[in-house]
Design a protein that fits this description.
Layout: E1 3-4, H1 6-20, H2 24-42, E2 50-55, H3 59-73, E3 77-82, H4 91-105, E4 110-114, H5 118-128, E5 133-137, H6 149-160, E6 165-168, E7 190-194, E8 197-198, H7 199-202, H8 206-210, E9 212-216, H9 222-228, E10 232-234, H10 237-241, E11 258-262, H11 269-281, E12 286-292, H12 296-299, E13 307-311, H13 324-331, E14 336-339, H14 347-359, E15 364-366, H15 369-374, E16 388-390, H16 394-401, H17 405-410, H18 412-423, E17 426-429, E18 435-437, E19 443-445, H19 458-471, H20 476-498, H21 505-519
Parallel strand pairs: 1-8, 2-3, 2-5, 3-4, 5-6, 6-7, 7-9, 10-19, 11-12, 11-14, 12-13, 14-15, 15-16, 16-17
Antiparallel strand pairs: 17-18, 18-19
């Protein structure tokens, strides 16, 4: 799903009107009618309710006049509270205000009340609260400064009312691009947005203000967005389902790839085993886990289906750079490499990680300690021969970029995208709404997942999923998107059954096959 900025939306509106001859009044009519249909679907029993439409003087208010008109025609009691004087309403919004007024002149169940200033608003607070449901059509996507005055008072009244709230296009006060409230923002139960979802609907905390989101087709041709070069997307289930097909009847373990996992160190064998087991559950035909020789015996009971391969080590149970040639030999018949889960940051291990990144000829997922091993020399990524996928959490990303975690979190998309383009990698910045950024400038937001995932080992499972999909022949892009999305879907399945407290990474592994089968095939 495309996610657009306010400027992109404005330009696409303009092109639709000027280049294709679709009048703005038609787009506004389509918006209001589509929002009306969604309102009826979302809120049952609405025909017996009293509805207040709080409208601004701009095009968002114009959308509000349209939906009010459709409500009037259904015989529903509607009051439009115009947060302006009528003479300040212009353009298409004025046309729709006039149409709404004509209907009100012929009905006892609708009216338009002007609220041009703070004093008038104070007098109208009680009448506003006599209504059962609020339609927010105050401010649209063009807002870029903090809300003040009685507009702020109106939004605070809506939020304190405990009434259902339905927003037109975007909750008033929410920044369309960042999802940040501009001083104050409407907390909607549902939002009908027009033509395309906006980034602010999806990004935290905007998603907490938007409520349920419905995208209304208002007649803007979809190819305009493609021509515009939109670079931000929301991953949808249908995108991931397209990656999967039923298995062929005549197939065998060799048909589904062979993954090499290089990881584990003293005290961190669990990370490597979680990664290997997750890869098996992803559908990978064969998985081999390369681990320090002294740890091999202890890890074998943790990995029943994956094979293990003991490797040369330092005297402290860390993989040594002496095993580099042996690992290269192991890679000759493998389709992907998972590098890093629990591998440690011993100096000899750092050298091994650098060498493997430079010399591997199969797609690789670089995670956890392997990321920490290259944090002081990210230029090694520019020396690679094969596609690389990095999966840092915010702390690891901060080390990669020599920034604070706070600075990373303030601009997750921008920083992830810049790193991906600069280093020609896929960068998966984990966290709430994980970001997947590609080297070509595109970024994807993952909507799945929940706070129950905030426990150790989750990232190791994700690495196994992504690397497993790479081994099965998925492109690095689709392996990344599918891995992140399914990882979150599994967690959502668990949270739905047992709550968000206490499920662990190995629980995710157990529900991978069921999640793929029931939700994607």
């Amino acid at each position: 799903m495309f996610l657009v900025t306010a400027n992109q939306m404005q330009e696409m509106d303009k092109k639709t009107i000027e280049s294709f001859g679709i009048p703005g009044i038609v787009l506004m009519e389509n918006a209001g009618r589509g929002a009306f249909d969604y309102l009826l679907k979302k809120f049952k029993g609405i025909k017996t309710k009293k509805i207040a439409v709080l409208a601004g003087r701009g095009n968002n208010g114009g959308d509000g006049f349209v939906i009010a008109r459709y409500l009037m025609e259904k015989g529903i009691h509607v009051t439009i509270f115009l947060l302006s004087s009528k003479d300040k309403v212009t353009g298409d919004a004025k046309i729709n205000m006039t149409l709404a007024q004509k209907l009100c002149d012929r009905s006892f169940t609708c009216s338009i009340i002007e609220i041009p200033d703070a004093d008038t608003f104070k007098k109208q607070k009680a009448p506003i609260l006599l209504h059962d449901l609020f339609i927010d059509a105050i401010l649209g996507t063009g807002l870029n400064s903090d809300i003040k005055g009685f507009f702020k008072d109106a939004i605070e009244l809506i939020n304190a009312s405990q009434r259902p709230v339905f927003s037109m296009d975007i909750p008033s006060g929410l920044h369309s691009d960042t999802g940040q409230p501009l001083g104050v923002a409407v907390k909607a139960d549902a939002t009908a947005t027009f033509a395309f979802a906006k980034a602010g609907h999806i990004l935290y905390p905007g998603n907490r203000y938007t409520g349920d989101l419905e995208v209304i087709d208002i007649g803007i041709p979809k190819f305009i967005a493609r021509e515009k070069g939109i670079k931000l997307f929301l991953i949808e289930k249908k995108d991931i389902a397209a990656c999967f097909n039923p298995r062929k009847f005549q197939s065998h373990k060799g048909s589904y790839g062979h993954l090499l996992v290089i990881g584990g160190s003293t005290g961190k064998t669990g990370a490597a085993s979680l990664c290997a087991n997750a890869a098996m559950r992803s559908g990978t035909g064969l998985v081999t886990l390369g681990i320090a020789k002294s740890l091999n015996q202890s890890i074998e009971p943790q990995v029943i289906e994956p094979m293990t391969h003991p490797l040369p080590e330092t005297d402290k149970g860390f993989l040594s750079d002496n095993c580099f040639e042996e690992i290269l030999s192991l890679l000759k018949d493998k389709q992907a490499l998972a590098l890093g889960p629990g591998i440690g940051t011993h100096e000899a291990t750092k050298k091994l990680v650098h060498n493997l990144i430079e010399k591997s000829e199969v797609p690789m997922v670089i995670d956890a300690d392997a990321i920490n091993c290259i944090a002081q020399n990210t230029d090694v990524l520019k020396m690679k021969k094969a596609p690389a996928i990095l999966t840092p959490h915010p702390g690891e990303m901060a080390r990669l970029c020599n920034m604070s975690i706070r600075d990373i979190q303030v601009d997750r998309i921008g920083i992830a995208s810049k790193f991906a383009k600069t280093h020609d990698v896929i960068l998966i910045l984990k966290g709430s709404q994980t970001i997947i950024s590609l080297a070509d400038g595109r970024s994807f937001i993952c909507p799945t997942g929940n706070p129950g995932m905030a426990s150790g080992g989750m990232g190791d499972v994700l690495t196994g999923l992504i690397a497993g999909f790479c081994a099965q022949g998925f492109s690095p892009e689709y392996a990344s998107l599918a891995g992140v999305f399914i990882h979150g879907m599994c967690a959502d399945r668990l949270a739905g059954k047992m709550g968000a407290f206490g499920f662990v990474a190995s629980d995710i592994i157990q529900v991978i096959p069921k999640t793929i089968h029931h939700d994607l095939l």
